[in-house]
UniProtKB/TrEMBL annotation, chain A:
CDD domains: Sigma70_r4 (cd06171). This is Sigma-70 family RNA polymerase sigma factor. Residues 144-196 form the RNA polymerase sigma factor 70 region 4 type domain. Transmembrane segments: none annotated. PANTHER family: RNA POLYMERASE ECF-TYPE SIGMA FACTO (PTHR43133), RNA POLYMERASE SIGMA FACTOR SIGZ (PTHR43133:SF62). Belongs to the sigma-70 factor family. ECF subfamily. InterPro entries: RNA_pol_sigma-70-like, RNA_pol_sigma-70_dom, RNA_pol_sigma70_r2, RNA_pol_sigma70_r4_t2, RNA_pol_sigma_r2, RNA_pol_sigma_r3/r4-like, WH-like_DNA-bd_sf. Pfam families: Sigma70_r2, Sigma70_r4_2. Residues 44-110 form the RNA polymerase sigma-70 region domain. Keywords: Sigma factor, Transcription, Transcription regulation. The keyword Transcription applies.
UniProtKB/TrEMBL annotation, chain B:
NCBIfam families: anti_sig_ChrR (TIGR02451). The lineage of its organism: Bacteria, Pseudomonadati, Pseudomonadota, Gammaproteobacteria, Alteromonadales. Residues 132-200 form the ChrR-like cupin domain. InterPro entries: Anti-sigma_ChrR (IPR012807), Anti_sigma_zinc_sf (IPR041916), ChrR-like_cupin_dom (IPR025979), RmlC-like_jellyroll (IPR014710), RmlC_Cupin_sf (IPR011051). This is ChrR family anti-sigma-E factor.
Amino acid sequence: MLIGIPLDKQRNDTCKPKECAAEMSAYLNTVAVKRCKLSFSKVFSYFAPRLRSYALKQMGNEALAMELVQDTMSNVWQKAHLFNAEKGSPSTWIFTIARNIRFDMLRKLQNRKEDVCSDDLWPILCEQTADTKTAPLDEQITLEQVGHYFEELPLKQKKVIEAIYIDGKSQQEVADELEIPLGTVKSRTRLALQRLKDMLREHD
Amino acid sequence: MIKFHPTDTDLVGFVEGSLVPAKSLLISAHLDLCDECAEKATAFTENLALQAIKPSSRKNYLDSSLVNMCESIMELPAATQHINADGFVKQTLSVDGRDFILPEALSRFSNRIGEWSHLLGKLWQAPVEIGGGHLAQFIYMEKDGGVPEHTHKGSELTLVIDGKFADGNEEYDSGDFISLDSTHTHTPVAVGDEGCLVFSIIDQPLYFTTGWARLINPLSHLYFRANS
């Protein structure tokens, strides 16, 4: 249960887009600055059910729709500091997050071979590319080098990377197989890739 | 002056996320160069957001699964990186003794650009690893250099990064977005005082990339044969 936080279960909140945008912007800022759970629950109460309707139409499947809502709202909670009211309304920001996640989900589902992910097209949540200190990787990295560094990864990360990049499995498949949450697979992948990049850079 | 733009239908498809990735990438790069289309795309995104997340919707309530979801999300830690989202550095691409600034969308692919190879005459090519059976590449035409006359089996999307070229039908300038298919035959030649750098994507089969190449850099070079 949420401790001391009333979720507006029956709230049939319809408000004018502009007022709503101002209200939601304020909540998002409080989430960013104070990690305020009450503010997040307000944002969640407004957006999650609406996102679910949208996601159901888009994905045509309750489980996938819920995954889309979960991933979107997790990003809102974790990256509220990237929201900038000057660049657009909360609705637009959250819609673009959902659009990106949907794009990547469909990419996996349809087994598209392009190495173009949503961050490449719409880097709204892209913190890595925003890192001014990140130099491009040396272009002469050999397969042997990568393989060598790969061996140095922690076992858990290695398993995940192997399954995704060598066996070509989806993150969901890996999660099911290893019986760990999807979020864990995602974070292990991210950490492993970051670690590989760091190692490649250090040994340059 | 940019004269050639994606259609509105393409722009809507792009912001919706329904266009194929290769075309989306080209449009994303075009938007970095074209304020007019970038403004349109912003407006289309706002419209789509309103349609997707309807403010007036009356049957929105939290059921127990959403309440549980909300609780579990708030257990997550905040993202630790706080990096200025505007601090992105544009990458450059060097050829012919010049450094070209890449549009942001293509800068993100700068670690997937292969070596320049000399094709013929005054024509240079550097592959970009995007996978999916697409041949993505930078093409550099030295001053007065060009590509022999050719047509396309599928579609050819081109973005002019820097310089001008003419192809017997039109003259294109920096920022122009060009979409051609099998009905077009053309002979691109750089015009003006300098060479011309373009980025193009052709949907013809390629070697599949290995997992490792996806992970890091272009480990395998992709070769392109000009249809002379």
